[in-house]
Amino acid sequence: MSNIDRGEHVRLRDLREDSDLTQSQVAELLNVKQNTYSQYENEKREIPICSLWKLADFYSTSVDYLIGRTSQR
């Protein structure tokens, strides 16, 4: 498991739900299977940095916010 703050997983789920998206829709954006994305949200799999970049761009936020290094969205 990564040394990234556990808050990243909660933030991923919150951002997705706030955007009214399914795991499948976000998985498609990242070019991964739904179960892979589910593992990201459930702390079962480390999120590749390239996926964090895509998510940060998609949600108009920073990677630092996604990984819990800042609370400023």
Question: What would you say this structure looks like, in words?
Answer:
There is one protein chain. The chain is mainly α and 73 residues long. It is built from five helices and no strands. The protein has helices at residues 7-18, 23-30, 34-41, 49-58, 63-66. α2 packs across α3. Mean pLDDT is 89; it is low at 1-5.
Topology (SSEs and partners):
Elements: H1 7-18, H2 23-30, H3 34-41, H4 49-58, H5 63-66
Helix pairs in contact: 2-3
What would you say about this model in short?
By secondary structure, this protein is an all-alpha fold. The chain contains five helices and no strands.
Radius of gyration (Å): 11 Å
Number of strands: 0
Q: How much of the polypeptide forms β-strand, as a percent range?
A: under 5%
The SSE order reads: HHHHH
Largest beta-sheet characterization: none
As residue ranges, the low-confidence spans are 1-5
Helix amount: 55-70%
**Class computed from helices, strands and strand pairing:** mainly alpha
Give average pLDDT, whole number: 89
Number of continuous helical runs: 5
- The gross shape turns out to be globular
Distance between the termini: 24 Å
